[in-house]
C-alpha cells in the first residue's frame, strides 16, 4: 500500500477563510440564560464565564468594547 500525503485543495482554504469572515448567529438570549443557570448549578466556572460572555454578545447589537 502506498502512502499518500495530504494535498490541500484551493477550495478548502477559500471555504475556511469565508467561514472565518462570516458572522456566526448566536442562540437566543433565553437559551443562553438557561445554559448559564445550568452551568452555575453544576459549579462549572469556565462554562459560567463562557455563557455570560455569550449572553452579552447576543444582547448587544454592536460590538462590545469598541
Description:
The longest helix has 15 residues, at 45-59. The chain has helices at 10-21, 29-42, 45-59. Helix 2 (29-42) packs antiparallel against helix 3 (45-59). The radius of gyration is 19 Å and the shape is elongated. The protein has 66 residues and is mainly alpha-helical. The mean pLDDT is 82. Helices cover 62% and strands 0% of the residues. The protein starts with 9 loop residues before the first helix and ends in a 7-residue tail after the last helix.
List the main descriptive attributes of the protein structure presented here.
66 residues; mainly alpha; elongated
| Overall body shape | elongated
Mean pLDDT: 82
Percent of residues in β-strands: under 5%
What does the largest sheet look like? Answer: none
Helix tally equals: 3
What order do the SSEs take from the amino end to the carboxyl end, as H and E? HHH
Radius of gyration: 19 Å
Low-confidence runs of at least 5 consecutive residues:
none
Summarize this, please?
By secondary structure, the protein is mainly α. The protein contains three helices and no strands.
What is the fold's blueprint, element by element?
Layout: H1 10-21, H2 29-42, H3 45-59
Helix pairs in contact: 2-3
